[in-house]
Amino acid sequence: MASHVAGPDIEKLIKLLARLPGLGPRSARRVALHLIKNKDQLLVPLSEAMRVAVEKVQVCETCGNIDSASPCTICTDTRRDPSVLVVVEDVSDLWALERASVINAAYHVLGGTLSPLDGVGPDDLNIAGLLKRTAKGEIREIILAVNATVEGQTTAHYITDQLQEQAKELKVSNPAYEPIRISQLAHGVPIGGELDYLDEGTLLQAIRSRKAFE
Questions:
Q1: What are the phi and psi torsion angles at 26 (to 5°)?
Q2: Which of 10, 21, 77, 121 is deepest in the core (most CB within 10 A)?
């Protein structure tokens, strides 16, 4: 009995779809079949959108967001409060907060969390970029919107220590310097929870009930 039900081109499409989050081999086959049956309405526009994404999508040089321009749409939005900076682990967390419309601030994407077991250290994250932004003196509050995991909290503690050390150095050179307020997400985010899987109401409560990081 043949192991494939279609030609190599379609099988390649199915295998690629199966590598997407939430799709297994069977789901990928259903998606591929649906795309092929609706070639003009779905497959052609999708392939064109993906071609444009390959050519234009890039990482924002300021915050680490993904967009078709750098600085990104969020960083160039003059309606946002530049004195408040929300620090997140991943772009998906940034998009989750934006989807919920819970805060109108600037963002900074770390690109992950500290994890010694996985060989992820401070130099592997965008922490240096964060300190560079805070050194300018324009930011008054940092919200550590990291996930409530061991790695997330470890990263939050490390960033807090780095910001406090930076504040001491800036205070020496500028006695009038006021340290940045550091806060974290409060009630609403369960232990072990990840922002991208939370509903808008939970995210809103977490932002509104934020408190100083301890």
A1: -70, -45
A2: 10
